[in-house]
Design goal:
Layout: H1 6-18, H2 27-49, H3 63-80, H4 85-99
Helix pairs in contact: 1-3, 2-3
């Protein structure tokens, strides 16, 4: 399997965008596109796991495909704003592992009171 790091994915998306004269859209335009893609993801999740059946006239799509679209547009937005997504991810994981480590019931049974 050809696994890619986030850095490689960000470079690959940048290489793709750089071949067009338009380049990156404005942050507001990208936010609109990201919102559109998240809406399409929500629709697919609703079709697959919710009560809303897909219309016969609707194109078959998958949750995986829509998540891929959301990831692609997220990478585009990060690139245009010069954000390293690996760094952003690592910071978020550090935050969640500290702030939220006892937010939900843990499988190991540990609680905040167990910390000395």
């Amino acid at each position: 399997m050809n696994e890619k790091t986030m850095k490689i994915m960000q470079q690959e998306v940048d290489d793709y965008i750089q071949q067009f004269k338009t380049g990156y859209f404005s942050p507001l335009g990208q936010m609109a596109r990201l919102t559109e893609e998240v809406g399409e993801l929500a629709r697919e999740v609703n079709h697959h796991y919710g009560e809303k059946a897909k219309k016969d006239s609707e194109q078959p799509k998958t949750v995986q495909e829509e998540l891929g679209d959301v990831l692609f547009v997220t990478i585009i937005m990060a690139n245009s704003l010069d954000i390293d997504l690996t760094e952003a991810f690592n910071r978020n994981m550090e935050k969640f592992n500290q702030r939220d480590r006892f937010r939900f019931e843990r499988k190991d049974g540990m609680t905040e009171g167990d910390i000395q």
